[in-house]
């Protein structure tokens, strides 16, 4: 024998409110529907659960014995509904944000800003083209990208939130640190440290050298920004990077940043997403946090 949970929930409401009409209003049901559920429950139990009187209903001994069980079920169902609502709210408040490897300092700033917030920020690092593809497919709500303002897929837009120049990063004490700016040909005698080939920074740096006709003494392919940073600190060579990627090491005197006397050294940082009017409030809240950051 199976007793439908809604029969017990209805019975509990009638017993606690003392009236079929009040229970119907509370449950958002019609009075015939409430009466029908009570009759079905009584039939399943096999004995009367209540009696009617002028002021409403009164429980029988069997009804009074059943009431604590019905109350437990009603409380449990209320907790289930609250749990489901909470989970839906958390899901709706979760922002899936892609960030280019170049923009890792913004990842730290945003993660810190939303720590303990009702908006849950989940950050995914990748290269700009892959991030744009994931925003277009709906896997990501938005992405912070490098030089992504052109040739975007239909339905996406790029909003510039910052920019930064590429600079020559050298170990502390390197001879080039005596100069504030250097021409590209000053790198001809250096070992150039490079991150992964897919990097926007890598592609821009390579184009600068190629257009200037500069061939460094050697190229060292390291495959990641972390490896480039460690090699710089170890004095292995020099690199073309935005200052923000090695700001901590520069501030601690481990590395130095030198300007490049060259055009087209400015990187544009763009937030890519659907048009702002189509974004949820949590996504807009995250993107609104970008404007104060100038790293």
Automatic annotation (TrEMBL):
Q: Which Gene3D superfamilies does the entry mention?
A: Periplasmic binding protein-like II (3.40.190.10), Winged helix-like DNA-binding domain superfamily/Winged helix DNA-binding domain (1.10.10.10)
- What SUPFAM superfamilies does the record point to? Periplasmic binding protein-like II, Winged helix' DNA-binding domain
* Pfam families hit by this protein: HTH_1 (PF00126), LysR_substrate (PF03466)
Domain of life, source organism? Bacteria
The family database entries (InterPro entries) matched by this protein are listed as: LysR_HTH_N, LysR_subst-bd, WH-like_DNA-bd_sf, WH_DNA-bd_sf
Q: Which PROSITE patterns match?
A: HTH_LYSR
Q: Which residues form the HTH lysR-type domain?
A: 1-60
Alphabetically, the GO molecular function entries are: DNA-binding transcription factor activity; transcription cis-regulatory region binding
Could you list this entry's UniProt keywords, alphabetically sorted: DNA-binding, Transcription, Transcription regulation
Q: Which residues form a coiled coil?
A: none
Similarity comment: family membership = Belongs to the LysR transcriptional regulatory family.
Q: What is this protein called?
A: DNA-binding transcriptional LysR family regulator
């Amino acid at each position: 024998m199976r007793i439908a949970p809604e029969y017990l929930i209805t019975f509990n409401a009638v017993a606690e409110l003392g009236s079929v009409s009040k229970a119907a209003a509370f449950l958002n049901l019609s009075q015939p529907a409430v009466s029908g559920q009570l009759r079905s429950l009584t039939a399943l139990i096999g004995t009367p659960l209540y009696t009617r009187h002028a002021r409403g209903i009164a429980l029988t001994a069997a009804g009074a014995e059943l009431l604590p069980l019905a109350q437990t079920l009603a409380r449990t169902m209320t907790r289930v509904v609250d749990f489901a609502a909470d989970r839906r709210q958390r899901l709706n408040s979760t922002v899936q944000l892609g960030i280019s490897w170049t923009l890792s300092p913004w990842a730290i700033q945003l993660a810190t800003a939303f720590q303990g917030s009702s908006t849950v920020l989940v950050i995914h690092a990748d290269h700009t083209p892959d991030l744009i593809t994931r925003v277009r497919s709906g896997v990501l709500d938005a992405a912070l990208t490098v030089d992504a303002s052109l040739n975007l897929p239909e339905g996406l837009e790029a909003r510039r939130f910052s920019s930064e120049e590429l600079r020559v990063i050298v170990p502390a004490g390197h001879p080039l640190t005596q100069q504030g700016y250097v021409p590209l040909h000053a790198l001809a005698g250096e070992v150039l440290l490079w991150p992964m080939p897919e990097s926007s920074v890598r592609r821009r740096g390579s184009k600068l050298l190629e257009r200037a006709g500069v061939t460094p003494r050697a190229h060292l392919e390291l495959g990641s920004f972390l490896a480039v940073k460690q090699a710089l600190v170890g004095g292995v060579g020099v690199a073309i990077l935005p200052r923000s990627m090695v700001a901590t090491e520069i501030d601690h005197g481990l590395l130095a940043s030198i300007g490049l006397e060259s055009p087209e050294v400015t990187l544009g940082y763009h937030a890519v997403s659907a048009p702002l009017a189509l974004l949820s409030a949590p996504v807009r809240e995250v993107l609104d946090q970008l404007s104060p950051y100038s790293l």
